[in-house]
Amino acid sequence: MPRMSRTTTSDLFADAGSDALKPLAERMRPRSLDEIVGQQRLVGADRALRRALEAGSIHSMVLWGPPGSGKTTLALLVARYADAEFRAISAVLSGLPEVRKALAEAEANFAHGRRTVLFVDEVHRFNKTQQDAFLPHIERGVIIFIGATTENPSFELNSALLSRCRVHVLDALSTDDIVVALKRALADTERGLGKLQLQVADAALATIAQAADGDVRRALTLLEIAAELASDGRIDDDTLAQVLADRTRRFDKQGEQFYDQISALHKSVRSSDPDAALYWLCRMLDGGVDPRYLARRMTRMAVEDVGLADPRAWRMALDAWDTYERLGSPEGDLALAQLVIWLAVVPKSNAVYSAFNQARAAIRAGGTLEVPMHLRNAPTRLMKGLGYGKGYQYDHDVEGGVALDQQCLPDALAGTVFYEPTTRGLEGQLREKLLALRASRGKARGGD
């Protein structure tokens, strides 16, 4: 094992004497790759990243994963295995002056033959100018850059920085992985809770792990709180009920989880899966999404994905939206639940949506095509003299109520079909009517 690296900020591996002042999650931070729970895809035996770390072959990287998945720990271990200085800054608390100071320290280390691992937490919060400041130092090898982010790097980091780093994706930890970390904390007499000799059933540990929602740091914090509340050395159901009363799920109302979940909701409706649609609706409500936003999106689904297969969906979407506005939460949430189930169950058609897009494409491609003369308005004698409105047939005066031989599209688009109705729901009846009408129109115009 390489010797411990010196740092210019607080070394989270050192200062054992102050461990008693640190939270349990900090005291139990893994000190080697073997102590990491989960993330076997990255640091398991014979994995490329592990081999690189153990060989001291370190590269700049971006660690992308949910909270509590081990991003900071892995960055610390990179410095440890590389025998490099470790410098940490937070994009939440730091600006360009702090970045320049950290880079100056790295330059000084570089001049004395030592590498610096520069860890930037929440790197997605830096703007493009701040991100660009790292580029020449990465290229020259002055720093081993490690950025940690909970957001998709493709959207949040500029391409120049991404091109100089490898992106490693960390997964949310499984319940079983978190239970391993909890048991380790209970048994460890040096850093953990071993001296307390707590009695905790496996079922209770599983409950804590599940409540942590993939975040090992949260799980250890919950365990520490439970240990403080345990009156007789036992963490029982009553203790857990107090600790877990206000637990929350992972959700970012402006991040990738938000867009992933609204995508899942929309696609569940489109796939006619009411159970999945209801689940994702409730997940987003649970995460704090504005129900009005969900009402608006479901109105879009009614128009885009249900369409004329069941026009009632449109009206129901507006009614559910209006009901929520009148009742608010939580009563109004039920109207949204009723709507999402209806949208998922009814027949679907995107024929109008497709026709609309085709018509717009025809306009972009065809430019400003002239309105046929017989369809033009003729309010003046001059316009009538120029032939405006000449030959127009008033459909109500024609037998059958339709002037079948009257062309309404511009000449360049004559005969073009945009709307192709499906056979689903009410649109199936519209299809029969429209096909018959198109056939009659073709005969009246001398077609087949």
Furnish the topology, listing elements before pairings.
Blueprint: H1 24-27, H2 40-43, H3 48-54, E1 61-64, H4 71-82, E2 85-90, H5 96-111, E3 116-121, H6 128-132, H7 135-140, E4 143-149, H8 153-156, H9 159-163, E5 166-169, H10 175-187, E6 199-200, H11 202-211, H12 216-229, E7 234-235, H13 237-243, H14 256-270, H15 274-286, H16 291-306, H17 312-327, H18 331-345, H19 351-366, H20 381-385, H21 426-444
Parallel strand pairs: 1-4, 1-5, 2-3, 3-4, 6-7
Helix pairs in contact: 10-11, 10-12, 11-12, 12-13, 14-15, 14-16, 15-18, 16-17, 16-18, 17-18
Written account of the structure:
- The chain folds into 4 domains: 16-169, Rossmann fold (3-Layer(aba) Sandwich); 175-243, Helicase, Ruva Protein, domain 3 (Orthogonal Bundle); 256-345, Zinc Finger, Delta Prime, domain 3 (Up-down Bundle), CATH 1.20.272; 374-444, post-AAA+ oligomerization domain-like.
- It is built from 21 helices and 7 strands.
- The model is unreliable at 1-13 (pLDDT under 50).
- Helix content is 50%, strand content 7%.
- Helix 10 packs across helix 11 and helix 11 packs across helix 12 (216-229).
- The strands form 2 sheets. The chain has a 5-stranded parallel sheet with strand order 2-3-4-1-5.
- It starts with 23 loop residues before the first helix and ends with a helix.
- Strand 2, helix 5 (96-111) and strand 3 (116-121) form a beta-alpha-beta unit.
- It has helices at 24-27, 40-43, 48-54, 71-82, 96-111, 128-132, 135-140, 153-156, 159-163, 175-187, 202-211, 216-229, 237-243, 256-270, 274-286, 291-306, 312-327, 331-345, 351-366, 381-385, 426-444; strands spanning 61-64, 85-90, 116-121, 143-149, 166-169, 199-200, 234-235.
- By secondary structure, it is an alpha/beta fold.
